[in-house]
Design brief:
Length: about 300
């Protein structure tokens, strides 16, 4: 690992040295998940929200084959404008992008791997990948789920989009030994909507309680991360019927266009935006900001306790 091509922003390195609170952020949502310039503005707003809560943001990605732990504003702009021309980096893509000296945006899985390398215990995202609807025939299960069983990073998200099969996603996470903890809720949130009928096994209501969960898992020496499922704030939530109709329509279009593999999630996200007349986009940006803030608060509590 000595010759690993990795650059850590000085501010992030200093925080890690003093075991201060740092929150990792992904870049796939910037490059593949949101359109320009909402993507850039959201990325900058996430960093600001993390700073306001007293932690240091580290947006992760790969530029010219070098792992970046923390990006400057110009590099965030680079991911925002290059968009889908960046490789989407999950576990299997990381060796390829390094060997090819390419640019790549990390998914939740990719971000967890790089965060763990750098010693960052917590990350924030919008929604995690999961088991897709129809997975019984397509076998489309996001590598985010297997990564959650491997890399020791806590992930703050707003649940998962119901473009996924949420019931199967929860079953898969149970099989893989990944704790799914409601943050101020007893039920799984589904991204645009704050609650589903799926009941969770555990709930915390404040950052200190969340930090205790992370700590207990680490004390046990268990591999893998855990999920804090943080509902979208009510004022930004979509009407559940509107969300479901848009999802059904987007899924039908994906089938009609023969979209497969890593293109599925970005395709559905773009279609959703059009089908909800931009409301999904506003909701998306708002819930990620909220997750960044909560992740920072948990990081602060966790740093205090160790
Ligand atoms: N879900 C969203 N927005 C996103 C993603 C998921 O609502 O931007 C991104 C995340 O980076 C996630 C990835 O890790 O998509 C999962 O992609 P796939 O389903 O191809 O594993
Ligand atoms: Mn997939």
């Amino acid at each position: 690992m000595t010759d690993l091509p990795i650059d850590i922003l000085p501010e992030v390195a200093a925080a890690l040295d003093r075991r201060g609170p740092v929150v990792a952020l992904e870049t796939t949502v910037i490059a593949h998940g949101l359109p320009y310039p909402v993507n850039r503005d959201t990325a900058l707003a996430l960093e600001a929200a993390i700073r306001a809560a007293g932690a240091v943001p580290a947006t992760l990605g790969v530029i010219a084959g070098r792992i970046k732990i923390g990006l400057g504003a110009d590099q965030i702009e680079h991911f925002a404008t290059k968009g889908a021309a960046c490789r989407k980096l999950s576990r299997r893509d990381l060796p390829i992008v390094l060997a090819e000296s390419g640019d790549g945006a990390t998914t939740v899985a990719g971000t967890m791997i790089l965060a763990a390398l750098a010693g960052i215990p917590i990350m924030a995202t919008g929604g995690i990948g999961g088991v897709h609807r129809g997975a019984e025939s397509t076998m489309d299960v996001s590598a985010d789920l297997t990564e959650l069983a491997r890399s020791d990073v806590a992930v703050v998200c707003a649940g998962a989009k119901s473009i996924l099969d949420l019931e199967k996603t929860l079953e898969y996470l149970e099989t893989q030994g990944v704790p799914v903890i409601g943050y101020g809720t007893d039920r799984l949130p589904a991204f645009y909507v704050p609650a589903t009928r799926y009941k969770l096994e555990a709930r915390v209501d404040n950052p200190a309680a969340a930090a205790r969960m992370i700590r207990a898992k680490r004390q046990l020496g268990l591999n893998g991360g855990l999920i804090f499922a943080n509902p979208i704030p009510a004022e930004f939530a979509l009407d559940p019927d509107l969300a479901e109709r848009a999802i059904q329509a987007a899924l039908a279009e994906a089938v009609a266009h023969g979209v497969a593999g890593k293109e599925v999630t970005p395709f559905l996200l773009t279609r959703m935006e059009r089908l909800t007349e931009g409301r999904s986009l506003q909701a998306n940006a708002a819930l990620i900001r909220n997750n960044a803030r909560v992740a920072a608060e948990i990081a602060v509590a966790y740093a205090r306790r160790r």
